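Let us work through a complete example step by step.
Step 1: write down the sequence.
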Amino acid sequence: MLLSGGLDSATALAVARHRGFEAHCLSVDYGQRHREELSASRRVAQALGASSHRVVRVGLSGFGGSALTDRAIPVPKDRTERARSASIPVTYVPARNTVMLSLALAWAEVVGARDVFVGVNAIDYSGYPDCRPEFLRAFERLARVATKAGVEGARFRIHAPLLRLSKAGIVRLGTRLRVPYGITTSCYDPRGGRACGRCDACQLRRKGFEESGVPDPTRYARPAARP
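Step 2: predict the structure and record it as tokens.
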């Protein structure tokens, strides 16, 4: 299970546990500016009964090219929904999900797992190309030809249980599964223990809680705008 410590991956972990899977969670320290998510991932793994959890380090910040790995690039704030859907944002980290799924695949092969869960979403999301169903299908095919286990007949499956849910649908699902959203974090640019409330991730998270009717436990530095 790829676990970032955010709303989506926490919900995907809850789904995996609900389906009866033993969960081995993997979080990646890739030099992200929002390192608070690593601490959140530890809390989430423990709260949702993961059998194990580890953090591996991969220096994607050495390449830069993203507002999440290069502090010289500002995180976009206060963007409209139309602006968010117009193009791939600067918070996209080149090849991040490809790298992370490769790490998860390697660990899965070591522990004998054949099911890899990831919390990607292609409805209310930030426009990243590596969150789309065609990417996941392609990676699943790769897993079957690029590993010893696959060549010997193992059939790896990439599970994305949230892929076609809206953010509100994800919040409703996680609430039914008793996900403790108060210990998760989604913000790209947190300050002083609070979410900024202005980045794309914060806006999508806030929208999900508002549209689901579930109280939002997030501590935002900026309050929600009045209708």
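Step 3: interpret the result. The chain has a mean pLDDT of 93.
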